[in-house]
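We emphasize that the prediction below concerns an isolated chain of 264 residues; any contacts that depend on oligomerization or on bound cofactors are therefore not represented. The input was used exactly as deposited, without trimming of termini.
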Amino acid sequence: MNPTRIPIFLYGITAYALFLFAFVQTVAFVAGFRLPAPFLDATIDDGSADATLWPAVAIDVGLMLLFAVQHNVMARPAFKRWWTRIVPAAAERSTFVVLSSVILLVLAAQWRALPEIVWQIDSAGLSGALWAIQIAGWLIALVSTFLIDHFELFGLRQVWNHLRNSSPQAPPMRTPLFYRHVRHPLMTGFVIGMWATPTMTLGHLLFSGVVTAWIVFAIQLEERDLIRAHGDGYSEYRRHVPMLIPRLLRRGNTASARPPIVSR
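Result of the prediction step, given as a token string:
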């Protein structure tokens, strides 16, 4: 057996555990829930407050741009071809996951709170409804990863195939559940989770606005790669299925369209 297989497999497991930690931390950070140790004691509305508005905005935007640049650059095929000359191909995705997770944790730790209230819903019924919608958004995001290939998306399948010395199999072309209604339900879930809140502060608004703008931009880059990879099949799927917001009235038949590949 190749002596690198077990270390790479253990690296992939560690990367996945770090992702789970960062995902829970990020959801709690945005939702405003404090978690027990070893999680960070910080939320989007009560992080380290800065004395003035614009330094806080600059730091917060810089943290979000750090994540956006890392995510977009490392997801491009040209970068992957270069990067896999340095790191083993089986560990490429796990390394992406590690860096993304670390940046999310740094963002939560270094975030500057902007606690001024933009809107606040005092009605218990409406507030409860917004919390329910927010939870649904996070669940849509998580379930969407399993509808395609959760373990490939977060690097586990690659290290498992490397351990077994087996070649990866191309997934079947399908559009399950959410993917019949929007091309990127993972991102739709994130958008819902960020915006559905009974209390919107200036910092939360900044976070939601910048991340939503980045999602729209990142999808354009991702779909350019998908069209190159899948040709007319993905173009046809793109013509029939909206990007993030489902249509109330469906047009045409999307059953034969190629499935989306979630943004990496």
